[in-house]
Amino acid sequence: MEFPDLGAHCTEPSCKRLDFLPLKCDACEQLFCTDHIAYAHHNCTSAYKKDVQVPVCPLCSTPIPVKRGEMPDIVVGAHIDQDCKSDPAQRKRKVRDQSSFCCIWKGATRIQFGNWIPGGVN
């Protein structure tokens, strides 16, 4: 006995199996059998809407929030340069701050390529 009105065919082009309990993909909203319901198994074009991953700072292991459309690498880099609480990041900021705002020799003058000459240039 056949029940042609029961269930639905899997929308995966390579499958088309008649499934009596088809599953609806929560991203693309198409019907699939149990073998093809995973995003990767049916090459879901809307998986990015549901499969969201939060990047983690490699230095301090803090999750870094990324807004839609932003590149995670750039946001994590900005976090390391500004907000990261790890020792390497803080040392890097400290060295950069000291070298850009102070002069070792009193009265020194900066010449080409950032070299310093004690007492200035005559």
From TrEMBL:
UniProt entry keywords in alphabetical sequence: Metal-binding, Repeat, Zinc, Zinc-finger
Signal peptide (residue range): none
Record domain AN1-type: where: 4-52
Keyword rRNA-binding in annotation: no
GO BP annotation list: proteasome-mediated ubiquitin-dependent protein catabolic process; protein targeting to ER
InterPro entries reported in the protein's UniProt record: AN1-like_Znf, Znf-C2H2_ZFAND2A/B, Znf_AN1
GO CC aspect terms: endoplasmic reticulum
Transmembrane segments: none
Superkingdom of the source species: Eukaryota
Single GO molecular function: zinc ion binding
Record-given protein name: AN1-type domain-containing protein
Native organism: Micrurus surinamensis
